[in-house]
Design goal:
heterodimer; A: 321 residues; alpha/beta; D-Maltodextrin-Binding Protein, domain 2; five-stranded mixed beta sheet; 48% helix; B: mainly alpha; 4 domains; two-stranded antiparallel ribbon; two-stranded antiparallel sheet; 25 helices
């Protein structure tokens, strides 16, 4: 009797979950204040017409929240999830997959407060001082990479876990000598009171680059490979069109919730590799993504969630072809 | 072993406590009528019943029971998941889990799009000689789409391909029903499989290689299925006729040159229209639409496979449905993982292990132990009390190093060293760690809330001026959620403990004011009058009559305030995290580490409970008369 009831209940929940997945369209996660050419396609509904069904776009604050939403089944594709949260999820055995690079951008900056007299030449003075870092994010990754290239022991720094907006305030107040972060508004506030620890050239020379990825749930990739491929095609098309002509920058800025000048400034530092470039320069053995994924994987490994021996299992570039 | 024993003990305890409780109810002779609070006294057996039910629910929903009693089930279900994963790409095409056949869905979509194109064409203002050509191209695409669903026009080779797939699936089903499929295990493979760590034991969640005969059957079938699925996905409706028609359409629209128009906007619109044609063409070119009758054999084979694998699973099916509630085991590329409740609700045994690991002072979390001690010089503790501006009052200037590189201390620097604890002194053990930091913050916030809140509350209850003057202030800020203060607190107080304590103080303060005020206004007038007529001074009335009378309200207020303070702690420690339980939770969340998150949740719960128990004891001691007046 009880057994029967249990099976009844579980079959009802099963039916419910099937019903909810059947009515769902394609659900995509994205970031605000992160200007990308595919927002033109988003606004003009090119995705919807190419996929032949409605695409629901949901904006998120962090890549971690994207992972959580993908695990719960509410999101199918995350566009521009940070590599760091993605790798953290993979280290924790989450059933999601990296299918493409969304955007490559200069590694997040760490801003040293004016008047501290610290730059990349005497960065060792950071030891023993308070530094605001949003832990386990791409900013954390670039912070660690910078400290590594400057030969500074991270363990001797008093690291304070702060969201970039809070970190900007702490930096302005002088509670921390350096703050690392992301996001146009927060970074603008930081630059107001300080200067980047390493210049763009120094970072690139040290091989510190960042990129955001496109990730999908394994289930979605398995059941709808055609949709995943179409999604990447439309994205690629939007990137190519933007590279040819930037007349639609206003559309992007508006959708990203930024001013046109801010969006232009942000996008001037972005690289949107085409599908072919991704296959030949990023995901090939020794390519940019190939190396970065391993480095990030090891940077964020914990005793419970160790780094994988081979991140290839979490990467599927077949949709780019 | 431990978990299974514990589960049995818990079940026995639960049954016993319920039985014992019911027995007491039946035999007890009590004078207390319904509504008498003494009916709720005692009853610790119900505490056992409550605690064991929670524990059992946790053991059950986290699949700890499944893992403890049927340890091989995880590995076997992983193999089943592998087969499901392999068959999934084919399955998704059929109305087995979905409402519609994939082909039907695609056809519907493409037809709609083509219709839309035809409608758009009229509004596009193409030149009179352009329109018919475009219309004919669109019509031709529609024709191909229809041809793809016509069994008569299908290439016999494609029919053969589908038959081949159906046959291979059927063959696999037959194979699976053979008891000793897939034959004797390879010795080295077997050894490798047996070397794997058990479910949840190592860093890998579930052992991937099949360890049992049943598991090997599913693993072998999944490999075969994987290949079948790959071949199935490669089938396209691209017979010679259709390919030819498609190629014609392609050349036609690719050769179509959009004639220049003066208006650039219209020109762009025209170009976009051609791109639309290209998009829909590409979809038709995918060739994923077939006559519905064609794939029926495959569907039938899939249903047979379902039945067979269900039969082969045997008890495993019920284990999955009954003792692994709220989710299932899923296979990924390289590993299997628990999904659903098994994932977000970590097992008690794992949580306990994680707790023990974190509790090891040598490990801790992010370099700080949970709760430990450290030898601290007394000087530092003294320095904490002495204000840092003290040396500024001293005459003279701070010393500078001389030509020999020696710094000679003067009175100013000596005072500075004293004020900052920079001198040799005795070391005493001092508690440190995440838990200690959190407790200190909560207690400090609470204490400040009591110190300022209670007098103000009493004052407001007794004075018209205080009531009117402070009421708007308190009532205005009280409903604001603590998290809303957070950004302001950061700018005002900075990243150190004072900001966090202030946030907690704000929470405790409002509660204390309200409860003290209610207590003061609730004092019976007759008691005040009696004291007055006995010649008591105002201070004596306050001290001897009003305060004791408001004590029940105040103590209940403290009890509530402690609870809310613990609740606000996570938010407070999110501001600028360095230590604390809330900090651990915030970081663990970013790493999707659900075990540590549960450790912090339980720690917060246990600490809250501990404080509440202390408060209950205090209440019982301080106001034994409560409820008896």
């Amino acid at each position: 009797m009880i057994m029967k009831k249990f099976i009844q209940i579980s079959s009802v929940t099963l039916a419910l979950s099937i019903a909810s997945s059947a009515i769902a369209d394609v659900n995509v996660a994205f970031f605000l204040e992160w200007a990308t050419p595919n927002q033109v396609a988003k606004v003009e509904k090119s995705y919807d017409s190419a996929l032949g069904e409605a695409v629901n776009w949901t904006n998120f604050d962090t890549g971690v929240q994207m992972t959580e939403a993908m695990l719960s089944g509410d999101i199918d594709i995350s566009y521009s999830q940070g590599l760091a949260p993605f790798i953290n999820a993979i280290n924790a055995n989450a059933p999601i997959k990296l299918i493409a690079v969304a955007v490559q951008y200069p590694a997040n900056d760490c801003v040293v407060r004016d008047g501290e007299g610290i730059d990349s030449s005497n960065a060792a003075e950071l030891e023993g001082k308070a530094v605001a870092v949003p832990l386990s994010t791409m900013a954390d990754y670039s912070f660690r990479m910078m400290m590594r290239s400057l030969n500074i022991d991270v363990n001797k720094i008093n690291i304070i876990d702060q969201a970039p907006a809070d970190a900007a305030v702490s930096l302005a107040d002088g509670n921390v000598v350096m703050a690392c972060g992301y996001g146009a508004n927060s970074m603008a506030k930081m630059y107001e009171v300080g200067k980047a620890l390493m210049t763009l050239e120094e970072k690139e020379a040290a091989g510190i680059i960042s990129f955001d990825v496109v990730s999908v749930t394994e289930k979605f990739a398995q059941e709808h490979p055609d949709k995943v491929r179409t999604f990447l095609e439309v994205t690629n098309q939007a990137n190519l069109e933007f590279a040819a002509s930037q007349e639609k920058i206003a559309v992007i800025a508006d959708d990203a919730g930024m001013s046109v000048t801010d969006a232009q400034k942000q996008m001037s530092e972005f690289v949107f590799p085409s599908n072919e470039q991704q296959l030949n320069e990023y995901f090939n053995s020794g390519g940019l993504a190939d190396i970065a994924i391993k480095v990030v994987g090891n940077a964020f490994a914990t005793p419970e969630n160790p780094a994988l021996d081979d991140y290839g299992v979490a990467i599927d570039t077949s949709f780019l072809k | 072993m431990i978990v299974s024993t514990l589960t049995i003990v818990l079940v026995i305890l639960l049954i016993w406590s319920v039985y014992y409780g019911r027995n007491i109810v039946r035999t007890e002779k009590t004078d207390a009528v319904f509504g008498n609070p003494s009916r709720a006294l005692r009853g610790w057996h119900w505490v056992i019943a409550g605690a064991t039910s929670i524990m059992l629910l946790w053991f059950y929903f986290s699949w700890d029971i499944a893992r403890a009693f049927i340890p091989t089930s995880g590995n076997e279900l992983c193999q089943v998941a592998k087969l499901n994963r392999a068959v999934n790409p084919i399955r998704a095409n059929f109305p087995l889990d979905n409402r519609l056949l994939r082909g039907t869905l695609l056809l519907q979509r493409d037809k709609e799009q083509i219709q839309l194109l035809q409608q758009q064409l009229d509004k596009m203002n193409f030149a009179p000689d352009e329109s018919p050509e475009l219309r004919s191209i669109i019509k031709a695409m529609d024709g191909v789409l229809t041809a793809q669903t016509d069994p008569a026009k299908i290439d016999p080779q494609i029919v053969a391909q589908f038959d081949n797939i159906a046959m291979r699936i059927s063959y696999l089903v037959d194979q699976m029903s053979v008891p000793n499929y897939p034959g004797k295990p390879d010795f080295t493979e077997q050894a490798q499989a047996m070397k794997q760590s058990d479910w949840g034991a190592g860093t890998i969640e579930l052992p991937v290689l099949p360890m049992t005969d049943r598991g090997r059957k599913f693993a072998a079938a999944s490999l075969v299925m994987h290949q079948i699925a790959k071949d199935y996905m490669a089938i396209r409706n691209n017979g010679a006729t259709i390919t030819k028609q498609l190629a014609e359409i392609r050349t036609r629209y690719q050769n179509f040159v959009v004639r220049p128009v003066e208006d650039a906007a219209i020109m762009a619109q025209h170009k976009r229209f051609i791109r639309q044609i290209d998009k829909i063409y590409k979809r038709i070119d995918d060739g994923k639409i077939f006559p519905p009758g064609l794939t029926q054999a495959v569907e039938a084979a899939l249903i047979r496979l379902d039945q067979e694998q269900h039969r082969q699973q045997g008890t495993l099916f019920y284990i999955d449905a009954l003792i692994m509630p709220g989710g299932t085991i899923m296979a990924g590329n390289s590993a299997c993982s628990e999904q659903g409740a098994g994932r977000w609700l970590p097992k008690p045994s794992d949580t306990f292990k994680t707790f023990l690991r974190l509790a090891d002072p040598a490990v801790g979390y992010k370099g700080t132990p949970l709760l430990w001690y450290e030898m601290r010089p007394v000087a530092e503790i003294v320095a904490w009390v002495i204000p840092d501006w003290l040396p500024e009052l001293m005459p003279g200037e701070y010393p500078r190093h001389n030509s020999q590189g020696i710094i000679v201390n003067n009175i100013k620097s000596k005072t500075y060293n004293f004020a900052t604890g920079n001198y040799n002194s005795l070391s005493v053990p001092f508690p440190i760690g995440h838990i200690w930091d959190s407790v200190v913050r909560v207690l400090a916030g609470l204490l400040l809330g009591i110190i300022f809140g209670v007098p103000l509350g009493l004052f407001m209850g007794l004075s018209r001026f205080a009531k009117g003057y402070f009421d708007p202030l308190i009532e205005l800020y009280r409903p604001v959620p603590p998290l809303a203060w957070a950004p302001l607190v950061l700018t005002i107080f900075g990243i150190h403990d004072d900001g966090k304590i202030f946030l907690l103080f704000m929470v405790a303060f409002a509660i204390m004011v309200i409860s003290a005020r209610t207590g003061a206004t609730g004092t019976q007038l007759s008691k005040v009058h009696a004291a007055h007529s006995l010649g008591a001074s105002n201070w004596q009335i306050l001290r001897q009559v009003i305060l004791p009378n408001s004590l029940p309200e105040i103590l209940t207020g403290i009890r509530i305030a402690i609870g809310v303070c613990w609740g606000t702690l996570v938010a407070a420690e999110m501001l600028a995290g360095t230590t604390g339980i809330g900090f651990i939770e915030n970081v663990a969340r970013k790493q999707s580490d659900y075990e540590i998150i549960w450790v912090t949740i339980i720690l917060l719960g246990v600490l809250g409970l501990l404080f509440d128990l202390i408060m209950r004891w205090v209440i019982a001691r301080a106001i034994p008369w409560r409820g008896k007046g």
